[in-house]
Design brief:
Length: about 400
Amino acid sequence: MMKRILTGLVAVAVVAVLAGAGVLVAKFDEFKWYLSSPRVHYGDMERTTLPVYFFEEQWAAHPARKDGADLVPAGFTDNQATAKADVFFVHGTAYFGDKWIGEAHDADAKTIINGPLMAMDASAFNGCCRVFAPRYRMAQFSAIEQTTGDGRNALELAYTDIVRAFDSYIMESNGGRPFVLVGHDQGAILVQRLMDLRITPDTRISERLVAAYLIGGGIALNRFQGSFKRLHPCATSTDSFCVVAWETFVEGTDPRAHPNATEAWDTRAWTFLNEEARVCTNPLTWTMDATAPASANLGALPVGVDIGLGINRMMGAIPTANVGHYKALPELKQAYTGATCKDGFLMVPKPKDSVFTYGWRGTGNLHLSDITLFWANIRQNTIERVEAFVNDRPAYNPRAL
């Protein structure tokens, strides 16, 4: 038995050394996914608490209280108090435990969500909108790469929380206002399903959808002939009732070799994108299949989260006494990177600062920096897109449902 254990440890060490040397990096990344997968079946250990979204503490960001989504760098203003629209923001995966589903209030996950995910991602939207970001029972991070029932069951449960949170937001807080949908990572996959099953079928709600930003979660172009036939990929910076999407990778790497670039929702079923053509919106031009120089980048936010094999380290912002919470954001890095849409993926030069490359070292996947690399451009665009939406509707009179 001991010999088998030692043999396994040697194998792990060899793979790690090879990965560190730049050899078999993609396979090492897949190996990390294997190590992280729960060793129990979905139904064996899943006893979780149902979030009740009437209570503000069930929201990672809510305009009625202070949170990480309120933060801005020097020179910017949190405009939520006067915003003409809302954003319903579904954060990415923050649960890396030994079950298929993490509690909405899992302590380790809350550290990541309350800190970097709200501060580095959700904060980009406080210029245009009031920010609503629900806590939810997340699928464990390896679930989105599982073809078995366990991973899919976890995503099913996560979605039930998101649709209940959205309904709670619409009934209790929206008041007939325009809204923007935003999802990153697992959040983007769940928002795809929310759009298909809950939003587009109901014109009372969908008529107020400014746009959906599905970031770090692929969406195939052919979905607009199926699940999203009432929508279209955004064609301009002020287009509305449309979808923006991108997945960020380093130039010269192969995005399709990475397991995190495959899961999607299509016509009432989870699916894999495989070789399907994808939507790629360049966040420096807000058009598809475009190239833009670094000079078009209004500012990258140097805040990151290092996630790997059970190690979570936040850096870049200034923490308070409470681990994972932040009281300030650092100065933006202007003209930091250009970007090119190529074969459905957003390709950028390798960032010079490690804060933008945490999480997927060596694979070229800049998934955790999908938003921060273009933070100021996203902020400016959502402000302009909301303004255009409201101005194009002079008789627009928000009404409660």
